[in-house]
């Protein structure tokens, strides 16, 4: 009964009212629920935390394994080469290839947080 009353009430409203009602409600939805992209500072903090715990040991200025120095890699995708490097990093972490199985493995939460920040 109540559903029919509400339905008949809203069916009589012009669509513009419904549009403004929905638009107004979206102002009160937290950004995290809308899957808002993290800002550059947040991404830097997440990547630094992950890299310190799992990557810098092999991919720093001295080791430079795989010809990759993560200290030199910028989060600003200024070149196609940087974009390709980040895509490769994402792919290797997502697949579980990196960090190597012999090294300390990230928790599912840390891995998910990093991959979500990079998307």
Topology (SSEs and partners):
Layout: H1 2-11, H2 15-26, H3 40-54, H4 80-95, H5 108-118
Helix pairs in contact: 3-5
Structural domains: how many? 2
Helix content range:
40-55%
| Pattern of helices and strands | HHHHH
The number of distinct β-strands equals 0
State the end-to-end distance. Answer: 46 Å
Mean pLDDT: 79
> Given the helix and strand composition, which structural class is it?
mainly alpha
Unreliable parts: 1-7, 18-25
Radius of gyration: 23 Å
Task: Report on the architecture of this protein.
Helices cover 54% and strands 0% of the residues. The protein has helices at residues 2-11, 15-26, 40-54, 80-95, 108-118. The chain is globular. The chain is an all-alpha fold and 119 residues long.
What is this structure, in a nutshell?
With 119 residues, the protein is mostly helical.
Brief descriptors of the model:
5 helices; 2 domains; mainly alpha; 54% helix; 119 residues
């Amino acid at each position: 009964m109540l559903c029919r009353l509400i339905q008949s009430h809203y069916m009589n409203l012009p669509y513009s009212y419904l549009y403004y009602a929905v638009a107004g409600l979206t102002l009160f939805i937290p950004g995290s629920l809308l899957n808002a992209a993290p800002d550059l500072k947040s991404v830097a903090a997440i990547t630094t935390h992950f890299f310190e715990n799992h990557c810098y040991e092999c991919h720093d200025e001295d080791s430079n394994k795989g010809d990759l120095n993560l200290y030199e890699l910028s989060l600003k995708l200024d070149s196609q080469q940087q974009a390709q490097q980040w895509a490769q990093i994402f792919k290797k972490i997502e697949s579980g290839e990196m960090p190597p199985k012999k090294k300390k493995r990230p928790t599912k939460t840390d891995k998910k947080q990093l991959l979500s920040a990079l998307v």
